[in-house]
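Ticket #4471: structure export looks truncated?
Reporter: QA, pipeline team
Priority: medium

Steps to reproduce: submit the single chain below to the structure queue and open the exported record.
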Amino acid sequence: MLDGVTRRFGTVLALQDVTLRVRRRELVALIGPSGCGKSTLLDLVCGLQIADAGRVALPDGERTVLMPQGDTLLPWADALDNAALALRVAGTPRREARERARAELDALGLGDFARARPATLSGGMRQRIAVARTLLSGAGVVCLDEPFGALDAITRAEAQRWLTSTLAREPRTVLLVTHDTEEAALLADRIVVLSARPGRVVADIAVPLATPRSATDPAVLAVRERALAALGVDR
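Actual output as written to the record:
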């Protein structure tokens, strides 16, 4: 996917010689210090930026979709139509798109808010709607930038379980940026750790554990400790 990629912004070197291979239908979590280029990496994969050196390549015909930080919902549309937006853009008939979107909102505990406008919803609710919209796009490569960062602990755990079950039902290739090492250990097939800027790959941790996972599982805790050690966090 990325081969020796470097990205600069003027005199700032954001990413340096990053090589990242991602297998089809694999969920790779990207962690690292703030400002290390994680969001830039997602932009490069989705073609929103161009590398200054190196190569970004996707399988022929593979579509990508990005959920950036922030929900970017349409303020004039209700929750249901926001969740169905990607399906409608892809040409899905309105009734079918809304039915599929409603099923995801129900799974996320938002069925009672389907007719609500974004301004009347909490940040966490809007974030969940945006994640549902992103996955409903049908793209083969899904890039999620801190998708659950605005959620409280209980809602975040529920959203993580929903993502796991959704990907089990409809597998995709996923790049997930997160600052939460527990979330990475719970969701990912691999955890890729980037250094402080300029971002470089300093660890690639396999997570050969079946999903769903429990945060109290000693094997999950061990993966989290490895990720923290790679980040240079003393415990």
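Status: closed, not a bug. The export was complete when the record was re-opened. Leaving a note from the reviewer for reference: The first strand starts at residue 2 and ends at 9.
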